[in-house]
Amino acid sequence: MEKEQLYKLIENPDLIGEQDIRFLNSLINRYPYFYPARVLELLGLKETKSAEFNQKLKQTAALSPSR
Fold first, then answer.
1. Are 53 and 42 in contact (CB under 8 A)?
2. Rounded to two decimals, what is the model's pTM?
3. Nearest Cα to 65, choosing from 41, 39, 47, 45?
4. Distance of CA 60 to the CA centre of its chain
5. How many helices (H) does the chain have, and how many strands (E)?
6. What would the pLDDT profile of 18-67 be if each residue is shown by its tens digit?
7. For residue 60, what are the CA distances in angstroms to 4, 25, 28?
8. What's the DSSP call for residue 31?
9. Cα-flanking dihedrals φ and ψ of residue 47, to 5°?
10. Are 43 and 24 in contact (CB under 8 A)?
11. CA 24/CA 8 separation, integer angstroms
């Protein structure tokens, strides 16, 4: 189930909602260096205008392979 949900989010990042952000956050907690999940979470936080966006952006930039 998780794999299909992740593929769906990769194909349609504009459709990321609150539930998807929670899913991505749990995925990041299990796999902290899984960069695509971090980027998708950032896109979702930006779309929902979350207050966490700036903090997560800094964390993701620090872990980015090519800043």
1. yes
2. 0.89
3. 39
4. 9
5. 4, 0
6. 999 999 999 999 999 999 999 999 999 999 999 999 999 999 999 888 76
7. 24, 12, 11
8. S
9. -65, -35
10. no
11. 12
